[in-house]
Design brief:
about 375 residues; TIM Barrel; alpha/beta
């Protein structure tokens, strides 16, 4: 299985990762005229000159570079002359860098690229949430070369994966090392917030309410971590069998050592130990941001400071052998998890979260929601 690997822009990354199955390195500036799927404050800072030098090194390593244009909302700048100038000017700049691939989430952007910049290979982002054959066919007909499928809907549905494969001829990709909740109700809101928090001349203030909510649900009901969207390295052959061409790995916010470990595990299709080591997790201490700089919200900051740096959650990968068979055989109906109980049983066998740690995190998140939803944070905001 081929791998799409994130860059943290660190000079040591390309030399340290196992490149035997890597087809591309993907990334983007912290902010640009289009924006993307991560808020600027979570990403390493890099200037345009260094981007050019880095892409040259990617090519020297025999790999493609994929630039992310994966915002789900452009704030309607695309319908103004000034906005068009910014978008086209940025695509012109990417052309001068010899970028190979661009990833988009908006149909208009895909059509613009195919019409005006046909030299770019095009990939549909996970942010577009493509989850059935009809949607996939629309994107293919617009010119998509590869579609990254919605992990929230299809990573565990092999029937849907087969149906999508039969419906389109373009390449298909799945997102593997995410712990996002299956059927998450906040997907579009979450990525829309990130889009506005990473676009030049926008950079709207952002609180990652969606991530808070996700973490809270997992600590309240740990079985939700089992029913989440991740794909084990050992299970990649099943996805290859149904016609998946590549796997997206994350995350751009990680240190080189973490990315190296993740790439190695998915290259070897094996990992012994804690599966949490491979899953994308952003520190709760990085979840609040204001325009162009961090904002100190005293009650919020105080609560975030109580969260331990190290998460003791342990998901024993060795006890998950055969776990996916339940889904391959189509036994998951995605209708009522409380009635099914399969993931709850797996959690009891393979997942360990210390009771005191879990109780503490539940209490912290409940207090966070009181501050955020109750409005206290908006009455005491103070800048650094």
């Amino acid at each position: 299985m081929k791998l799409s690997v994130p860059t943290n822009w660190q000079p040591d990354l390309l030399g340290r990762i196992n490149k035997s199955k890597v087809i591309e390195i993907y990334g983007k500036l912290g902010c640009d005229p289009i924006g993307g799927g991560r808020p600027s404050f979570t990403l390493p800072s890099i200037d345009k000159r260094r981007v050019k030098d880095y892409i040259l090194k990617v090519h020297q390593n025999g790999l493609k570079f994929n630039y992310l244009l994966n915002a789900v909302c452009l704030g309607n700048i695309e319908w103004s002359a000034a906005g068009q100038k910014r978008i086209r000017g940025f695509l012109d700049w990417l052309t001068t860098l010899d970028v190979d691939v661009v990833t988009v989430s908006i149909p208009y952007l895909l059509e613009l690229v195919k019409k005006r910049y046909p030299h770019f290979e095009t990939k549909v982002s996970v942010c577009a949430a493509v989850c059935d054959p009809l949607q996939a066919k629309y994107w293919e007909d617009m010119g998509a070369d590869t579609i990254t499928l919605s992990p929230w809907a299809v990573n565990r549905s092999f029937k849907t994966l087969r149906e999508i494969r039969q419906a389109v001829k373009c390449k298909l990709q799945v997102y593997a090392n995410t712990r996002c909740l299956s059927g998450c109700p906040s997907v579009q809101y979450h990525y829309s917030s990130h889009s506005h928090s990473s676009r030049t001349k926008d950079r709207a203030s952002s609180i990652n309410y969606c991530r808070f909510s996700c973490n809270y649900l997992i600590f309240k009901e740990p079985w939700r971590l089992i029913s989440a969207c991740w794909i084990r390295p050992e299970d990649l052959p099943y996805y290859e069998t149904v016609g998946i061409n590549s796997v997206k790995l994350s995350d751009r916010s990680m240190e080189t050592e973490q990315i190296q470990r993740i790439v190695e595990a998915y290259t070897m299709e094996s990992y012994g130990g804690n599966l949490m080591d491979l899953l994308y997790i952003i520190s709760a201490k990085k979840l609040a941001i204001g325009k162009k700089r961090n904002i100190k919200v005293p009650p919020l900051s105080k609560l975030l400071d109580q969260i331990p740096v190290n998460d003791p959650t342990f998901l024993d990968n060795g006890k998950l052998d055969g776990f996916l068979n339940f889904f391959i055989e189509g036994k998951c109906s995605r209708i009522n998890c409380d009635v099914c109980g399969y993931c709850r049983d797996i959690a009891n066998k393979a997942l360990y979260i210390p009771d005191d740690y879990r109780s503490k995190l539940i209490s912290i998140y409940e207090d966070l929601f009181k501050i955020i939803i109750g409005g206290e944070m908006f009455t005491c905001r103070q800048k650094n």
